[in-house]
Amino acid sequence: MATVNIRRNVDDKFYRYKMPSLLTKVEGRGNGIKTVIPNMEDVAHALARPPTYPTKFFGCELGAQTTFANDRYIVNGSHTAERLRELLDTFIEKFVLCPSCKNPETELIITGKGNSEAIHRDCKACGRQNDIDMRHKLTTFILRNPPKKDKGKKGGKQMTATANVGGPMVFEKGTNGNVNAEDGSDDGAQSPDIGLAAAVPTSGTDIDDALGRSDPILGNPDAAEEVSKKLEALNVDEDDEEDANSPYTALGSWLKENKTADDAAVISKIKELEIVGKHKVLLEIGQHLFTDEIAKEIGKRVSLLQVLVQANSEKHQKSLLGGIERLLALSPQSEQLLAAGTTSKVLMALYQADILEEEVVRQWGTHVSKKYVDKDKSKKVRKSADAFLKWLDEAEESSEEEDDE
Ligand SMILES: [Zn+2]
């Protein structure tokens, strides 16, 4: 992979501080067009900053919405790699380099409380502390999502490692972490290994190295604890799955009776049942809020779904897909609905509204599962998504052409 000097204006091939050259990939089209930064983690790692910081910085500078979930760093809109590299230079100038000695080995330190909160760059090279300009919007984001403290390990490596955990947390709305560990149970298509990998940071970190070795869990007590927590959460989830008294069943029954309830009423029902933020809410919503007219109805529920599908969490997306799958497969009109390409229409609306991510839809669309309906039905529902999946492939091809610049 091509690397560049962290200070790109330093024309010295022996300059010690390098980072991977930032890459971009434009996905989707129309209102749903977005720029994915596939190597954001590696770039951020080299800068010893959480990958969310530069991504959010791009968003601030471009006035664009950003999303980070499942290790995907996305800026809405279509942006060239060169533009983002220039912005990255600015980010490095303002948030990484020591203004005194221009060394990039700095750590962000937050001091003060309330209105007097401030962020400093603590330079490992010259020892000086320099203030960050608090007028930049990114500072608010940093204060809300502070860099995790080193736990005895030195250098930026650890910072990046913890930052990955911090990444998805940004949009977390007060429930269990939205890491996809619990999806390990999904349909057998994913091995438990994926659960483990998701429970700890991925990509080029100390922990990642540890995971690659023969005994990842024992080798890493933190990871082991993290995993057992996830597994615990998973068991709880499974237990109440078919419980007739569960709040999810109650929500489902309520939705069946109140399909025309406005978004606010749906949300207060979810609050009343104390299941705010739970991914299984989406299963009920997908199955019971809509009727056979879902292709028409989905557009009106986009805002509600944007609120309920947390942080583009894979789990939430999969539950929503599962609910919709049930609706379409179990409807007495199922054959007609599927023949009319209803699945494609619904997926398109959800994708364009950034509720579903490309990778999640692809994975769903190409893996028949008997988790929600029987296999035969599951196959038919996916067949009805063909048009959308084909469209995704074409959109991808055309964005690759654009990448060639
Ligand atoms: Zn310095």
Automatic annotation (TrEMBL):
GO cellular component terms listed in the entry, alphabetical order: cytosol
W2 domain location: 237-402
Keyword Protein biosynthesis: yes
Disordered: region residues: 167-206
SUPFAM superfamilies: ARM repeat, Translation initiation factor 2 beta, aIF2beta, N-terminal domain, Zinc-binding domain of translation initiation factor 2 beta
One Pfam family recorded for the sequence: eIF-5_eIF-2B
GO molecular function: eukaryotic initiation factor eIF2 binding; GDP-dissociation inhibitor activity; GTP binding; translation initiation factor activity
Keyword Protein biosynthesis: yes
Alphabetized UniProt keyword annotations: GTP-binding, Initiation factor, Nucleotide-binding, Protein biosynthesis
Matches recorded under Gene3D superfamilies: 1.25.40.180, 2.20.25.350, 3.30.30.170
Single biological process term from Gene Ontology: formation of cytoplasmic translation initiation complex
SMART domains xrefs: eIF2B_5, eIF5C
UniProt record similarity statement: Belongs to the eIF-2-beta/eIF-5 family.
The protein's name in its UniProt record: Translation initiation factor
Taxonomic source organism: Dioszegia hungarica
